[in-house]
Amino acid sequence: MKTFASVTRRARRSGLLALAISNVIAGTAFAQSAPNETVALESGNLDTVVVTGARAAGRTVRNSAAPIDVVSTDDLLATGKGNLLEALQTLLPSLNSAARQSDVEGNIPGVQLRNLSPGYTLVLVNGKRRNNSAYTSIGTFPGQSYTDLSLIPVSAIERVEVLRDGASAIYGSDAIAGVFNVILKSSATSGGVSVEYGQTYAGDGGRTRASANQGFALGDRGFVNLSAELIDQDDAVRSLTYKDSYLIYPAVRNGQLVRLGTNNSLPAGATPNPSEATRNAKSQSNQGTNGYETRSAALNASYDLSDSLNLYGFATYASSDKSARQNFRLPVAIWQRNPALLNVYPDGFTPTIDTEETDYSVAAGLKGQLSTWEWDGSVVYNRDYFDIYTRNTANYSLTYPGAKTDFYDGRLDYSQWVGNLDVRRGFDVAAFAEPLQVSFGAEYQRENYERLAGDPDGYFGSGAEAYPSNRPEDQADASRNRKALYVGASTNVTRPWFVDLAGRYEDHSDFGDVSTGRLSTRFDFTETFGVRATVSNGFHAPGLGTQNLQITKVTPTSEALTAAVNSPVARALGATALKPEKATNYSVGFTFSPTRTFHAAVDFYQIEISDQLGRSSSIGYDFSDPANIRDPNGTPLTAAQRQTIDDLLGTAGITISQGQNYSVNYYTNIGDTRTRGVELTLESTHNVGAGKLRWTYAFSKAETDVLSLAPIPQVLQTLPNITLLTAAAAWDLRYRLPKYNQVVGLFWNSGPWNASLNVVNNGPTKRQASADITQYEVDPTYITNISAGYSFSKGGTVEIGATNLFDEYPDNIPDAALSASSRAIYTSQYASTSLNRQGGLYFARLNYKF
């Protein structure tokens, strides 16, 4: 994949990046050695008091016992990205998006922290648990549900605290890789409005964002802070191009339409269809950026009922309409399956899977002081639901013209009640240098999950193309509750030695109890150098969607069932109740802060996860040819193996009839993994003339290995191709993300002027072709984002900028890694990476502060 030009380009860019970093560090060293420095420098986010990851008060980024990042609203806006999720990915090298997905998964973005599933990262708002999406991943992260950060309005955010460490002992399930805590704005007086427009260099992908925020004082006892935001993103289509030799219409022979040959070649004795002369060679349009519109709002409020009692509450709301383009359906395929449909789609069609999502969270609480005890009681209600539609499509089993081309596919609905009571007090202990902070509490959570059926025409027969409607037999309505008790203690044992202990016990109504613990410590050898370490265990509870998800996919020639793990057919094939995924985390690092304005940290970590979720192999066979019965992988079956499958399915009342191709799989715990990594962060702030310059550098590298696999169920051990983790799936688990990531940031302001530069370097990415397991490497990318602004005297600000300044696109897949059919279809194909395929984008923003 590497040419001389690409290697030279990469070396030149690496050199430029290294030179930029070395110059900045050199400048830092020079500035620190200046003997007569009299102007105090601000310390950026280093001295922000953080509330995430420890129940002890007063910890900052600089003196925290675990690695934590603080990202301000200004940092988020300077990236020029469309939403919170995209902005965080630009700023934090440990946070990556998965490669582009299709189907419903393309509308539910997930991010990975430390090369782990998005399901292992907990999201909080104002320290309270936020719900996951109602969607359960089928392919990319099998069985996982996760929070969509893009639904939280940036206009409502004061800062985001990102704990890069396990914290299940503090927060419960999901906090294996880390925690995002979104802190909402709490100003009682200030506010502003903002309007932004951006467009790709190619002239499409227009993005409009409008937002407003305002704080209101409630006398001298409290505040209400309100925010609203609208984001309207248009499609940025980056089509693949069909080769001239690849035909898309049925050929013509003796005046009659006929099938095409191998790889859509012209069959003997036939002529190309006249429509080929005017065809659109770029009909395959499911690359680039999918359009969406998100409307969101937030409220944050607090009121002192007395000197020792405070009433508080907050709420967020988002409504989002998203559309994901699917593979183009060729006219020749339409003609072969339902000739009458050509009257509706004479030139083929591109289905879209559209979601209309609503997500909201409401929290209310009281906190106060009783004698020397501080307490905080709260109730949170979270809900996420969305309706799914397949549009611009067809069900080949219906009679056309006149039949439906748009289908309602059903609803997914997840809701959650969480009640907390936290109590804390400090005790003076003569043996300790600081008071012993003791905390304890209790939590109750109730969850509910529903999967509702869709339009019968959408699942009739072969079902709608791209995404058949949910069937009645696949509906679900499930709930569970959990109870938790937790305790913590922290103190400075000696002035330089800080210790933080936490323990938690949880009991779940569906799979039992789990206990977790965490020990975090820090020792400051000097005022500038400290060492920190954490050891903890954590868990991720199998979601209600995971346990109850069932999907039936039917085509004219096959039926594939993803069976609920507790269903009769799954149990007949060896499925057992899902166990919680459990983790053991170790981390050790050091911090170095020689001045108030410079901070460096290096952290090494290891995360071992046991009983990781995955999907079983597909079990069944193709009975279309009685003389050549094959399993779902195409391997011939012996009479004994076929009989074994028949016997197993028969216990669940399923019989494979002649002419049928039937297979079943289910979610299961597949085995154990280990992820090791290192993270480096540098940050410094300087006076430069009359202005201020802050620079940051961050590096992250993680590697995942599969340690062991769970045993194959006894009833399946005589069948071929039965494995809990195929070679392709293991490769994807290990190498979803780049080998390393680097982020360099420069933030400058002087009087009314400000500017920022952000360079994101994604290292080489390993990929494996599914056709023949050919392995290849995608070259590193360097994405540059810039912005500059000017503030007027009466509160107005104008900003302009560009993301992906140099218009970078992913590499193409090398020919050696393409199947014969793929080589016959397209002139080139993008490699699968986390880099989007829309190219560069410029934007302008107008702000007005009240």
Write structural notes for this entry.
By secondary structure, the chain is mainly beta. The protein has a single domain, classed as TonB-dependent receptor, beta-barrel domain (Maltoporin, Chain A). Helices cover 11% and strands 46% of the residues. It contains eleven helices and 38 strands. The protein is globular. The two termini are 54 Å apart. The relative contact order is 0.12.
List the helices and strands and how they pair.
Layout: H1 4-33, E1 68-72, H2 73-78, H3 84-91, E2 95-97, E3 111-113, E4 121-125, E5 128-129, E6 157-163, H4 168-171, E7 178-184, E8 191-200, E9 207-218, E10 222-233, E11 236-237, E12 251-253, E13 256-258, E14 288-289, E15 292-306, E16 309-325, H5 331-337, E17 352-370, E18 373-391, E19 407-427, E20 436-452, H6 456-459, E21 476-494, E22 497-508, E23 512-524, E24 529-540, H7 544-548, E25 551-554, E26 559-563, H8 568-572, E27 581-595, E28 598-615, E29 619-622, H9 639-650, E30 661-688, E31 691-709, H10 727-735, E32 740-750, E33 753-762, E34 765-768, E35 775-778, E36 781-791, E37 796-803, H11 820-825, E38 841-849
Parallel strand pairs: 4-7, 26-30
Antiparallel strand pairs: 1-6, 2-3, 4-5, 6-7, 8-9, 8-38, 9-10, 10-15, 11-14, 12-13, 15-16, 16-17, 17-18, 18-19, 19-20, 20-21, 21-22, 22-23, 23-24, 24-27, 25-26, 27-28, 28-30, 29-30, 30-31, 31-32, 32-33, 33-36, 34-35, 36-37, 37-38
